Amino acid sequence: MLIFATSDKGGTGRSVTGCNIAYRRALQGEDVAYLDFDFGSPTAGAIFDIPDAERGVSDRGLHSYLRSGLEPVELDIATESNRESLRDMPPSSGRLVLVPGDRGGGEFGRSQELVPRCISLFNRLEQEYAVSVIDLSAGRSYAADLALAVTGDERMRQVTSRWLVFHRWTRQHIIAANGLVFGENGILEAGKLHGHDPQRLRDSIRFVRTAVVNLEAPQFTMGRPAQEAWSRVCNNDLKELAARNGLGLSTLLGEVPLDPVLQWREQIISDADVVVSKIANPATVEAFDAIAARLSEDSTWEGL
Amino acid sequence: MNAVAPSAEQGPLVVVGEIRTCLVQNFAALPDNFVGQMLKVVPGQPVYSSKRPVSHATSPDRLTGLDCALASYSRRKAHGCGTALSHATVTGGRILQGSARACLLPAGADQRRAWRHYLARPGVVEITTRADPDDLAEGFLADHGRDPALDLGAISERVIDEVQSWRRLDHGTPLRARRTRVLWAAVLDSEIKPSARITLERDEKVRTVRINASPGDLPRAMRFCEDLALHDWLLTTVSLALSQADRASALGRDPVELLQPVVDQLVPLWTPGAHVDPVMLPLWTGLERHPGFTHQWQLLVARMRDKIAYRMIQLRDGGRPWPAT
Amino acid sequence: MDVVFREKSDTPQIEEVALSHLSIEVGHLYREDLEDSDERLREQFRRAAPWIETAARTVKSRHGGKARVSTCFLVDDYTPADSQRKPAGPPSQIVEMLVETARSQGFTLDYIVRESGCALSADKPGVEPSAQVDLADIVAGMIVAEPDAGDNGSRPPTADSGWLANGKRAPKPDESAAMAPNPWQPPEEYGRRNHSIFVDVELWAKVEDWTSGAALLRRDFSCAFLAAVWQLMRLGMLRNEGKPVAQPYRLGTDPNLPAEWPDLPTVLQVNERAAPFSAYRAFSLLPHWYLPTEHAVRHILEHLSLDAAIVRQIAARAANERITLPESVTERLGYVFLDEC
């Protein structure tokens, strides 16, 4: 299964959430590959704490593969990461592998070899990994267009592809996320040009809300009543706006609460971070777990 | 087959190769006639095939131009120019291999020659530096095809990609399998006693094979390595499926859906040595003695069948879910 | 008891083709030029005649009176627009003109070949295009690009652009860096001695073909590429899955030729007693303006990986007949470029 992670704008926490979902999915027992297609700034290496790949690798990253066909490296998180919690995943976990981007990759021209090359890569990963998470850059990027072209190809029709659109829980981000999916040159429109069936493509897109303020948190329920009331009104307005923009509950895959660890450190949250050092909130891990599980839950992805 | 035809007076020569093995990307095994069409990668050249005991087909060879460093065990500088041969094989309509190899021969000159000189010697890379055969063979196996030295794996990989881009494949994945790499190096000398050494490398996907044989045995040695790579892949894939099944059981999921396609589709393909020339069979016999390939295979297959049988009994006794342990 | 188990398709066979000592190409003209008048043809044959005699005499003096020499003429009918531009006269008329003009200049023409049959070949008249052998594709599949220094197999050879170079192309000036434009850099011939002679030949152009109702990309082969196929045919180097291709079709005494040019077989044998069409060596008598084309042909041939089994078979037969053959096929080709007088 291919999971494409994209977002309307930068700063949604797409990469850090995507990495955490991949990690959770591996903990759930499946072999998972994470592909850093954010060619402008490949940061997955830093999130997984792999010193040699913090800003992408110097050689044989995804960028060089797409540009010149050099076989990309696969970094096994269990052996390459500096973090103990990532090195010591329980035996029931699957393998977690990072296919990094290239340091200083930059853009590349459109060549007719790109699509077949990308198909070969995805097909190869599909043979080995139950789930491949492909982190596209923000907005209407070239990587997103390439992903649509590849998944629209007849050679990929047996491969399940799903799209996660990450957005912050704000007015601006809701409107922008709507534009990214439904707007002019959006995913649906571009997908149609690449031979996707519009309905099927639409059914394969779900939204993930990030940095969502928890109104049940003590700071609200124990704080000033006026602030609490106002916050609830705002939240309801946002829900209404989201529903009007096609981002309502039926297309929602999950909500990731606002968590300082994600905001400041952009890291993988392990169970130890919640239980032992207690720097992260249990709700955050629960959200990741739920999203990871829903990736393959057929009831979640039924046609709307 | 465009076999390299080295002349005996050149002394010992080195042949190096890399084989990548994977599943044909199709839900079901491909029928023979489909395999024949899929492997027609060179127009006008025939696909070779045989049917017994398992169907096996080999695509025509093609050439890739090379002008690069060669790894040596002593890290002495070596350089070569010429071509590598590569082809694809399909076994049982199910397993696909990309296989590339080059014969390393001393060049008469220390400079690159006209291209037609190399094209008249398909599969030969002429070494423009002084080099010892053993040093080159061991160097190739130790280097694993790293830049900037000769990278036959990438050539094998491209053959696989090309074959898989055939339009009529459904690109379905009936079971998860890793692509394995077998790097092999043969030193061919009429004075040499035939032998083989097989190593599972630290990188889980890599195995290396060192062979000593006589010069006439080159095509047979290559076939032996392909056959070895295929059976090693079967062992790897079945072990992987079993560990996935164990994980699934531990997490309370049904392991049978992981194991069933393996039993159905891969178990019938175990025929070590079937497509290997009798001259090379002693090498297989040696492997059967130690580490006991077929013995290990039988154990793995029995474990899979036990798991499936156990699950069937459970279902019969009321269909309780797999117990989470 | 020893048991032998053998399966038929595991042992491929390369069938042999008949070979002369020498094949002489007596000319090569566009079909239209033949239809306008026979003056051009007469001129070409008049200039070629003394060379034909000399070549034949040389072969016989070296290999004895029974040495086999055949003559052939290539009609360029490939460019697809041409066949539609003019309603062609019946092929029988052109065949007769060629045979008669040769006779009037004192030599016998043995074979007439149509160039489009070097792309799609047929052994007999009226073969459906789908049943013809894609010879140009077969030859295109033999191309092996020359490696650049450092090519270790990691990167795929540059895409099938339809061009073939004998060196490293000049890098494109970097347009984006307007502030510091890159100075021009020259192309470089591989394995050059001091200076380069850089050659880059167009093998085909990809064109959209709408004949099936939908746009399919079809390769439109260049004259140079088809001429390379032609030279390989003459040297007996081509097979389709081991079987001979474009074998001569005997016209016989009662020519009952198709009325349409594309329905002709590729190679038409117009002399009953001709020596074999293909030969160990090929010699061409061409107008001087064919020089660049033939240079391109040799360049293409030097980048082909010929079937090693065919190469060995022909070398063995040559050795049997005590003929020394150069290893490279380009060295088996000889030319005289005829001037205007």
Task: Provide a descriptive summary of the structure in words.
Chain A: Keywords: ATP-binding, Nucleotide-binding. Chain A: This is ParA family protein. Chain A: InterPro entries: P-loop_NTPase, ParA/MinD_ATPase. Chain A: It comes from Actinospica acidithermotolerans. Chain A: GO terms for molecular function: ATP binding; ATP hydrolysis activity. Chain A is an alpha/beta fold and 304 residues long. Chain A has a single domain (2-214, 249-301), classed as P-loop containing nucleotide triphosphate hydrolases (Rossmann fold, 3-Layer(aba) Sandwich). Chain A contains 15 helices and 8 strands. An 8-stranded mixed sheet of chain A has the order 3-4-2-5-1-6-7-8, sandwiched between helices. In chain A, helix 1 packs across helix 15 (282-294) and helix 7 packs across helix 9 (187-193). Chain A is globular. The mean pLDDT of chain A is 90. Chain B is α+β, with helices and mostly antiparallel strands and 325 residues long. Chain B has 2 domains: 8-217, no CATH class; 235-316, no CATH class. Chain B has 8 helices and 10 strands. In chain B, strands 1, 2, 3, 4, 5, 6, 7, 8, 9 and 10 form a 10-stranded mixed sheet that branches. The termini of chain B are far apart. Chain C is built from 8 helices and 17 strands. With 341 residues, chain C is α/β, with parallel strands linked by helices. Chain C has helices at residues 31-36, 39-63, 80-85, 91-104, 135-140, 223-234, 291-301, 308-320; strands spanning 20-30, 69-76, 111-114, 120-121, 133-134, 163-165, 167-168, 188-189, 200-202, 204-209, 216-221, 239-240, 243-244, 249-250, 267-269, 279-287, 333-338. Chain C is globular, with a radius of gyration of 22 Å. Chain C has one domain. At the B-C interface, strand 2, strand 4, strand 5, helix 2 and helix 4 of B face strand 5, helix 5, strand 12 and helix 8 of C.
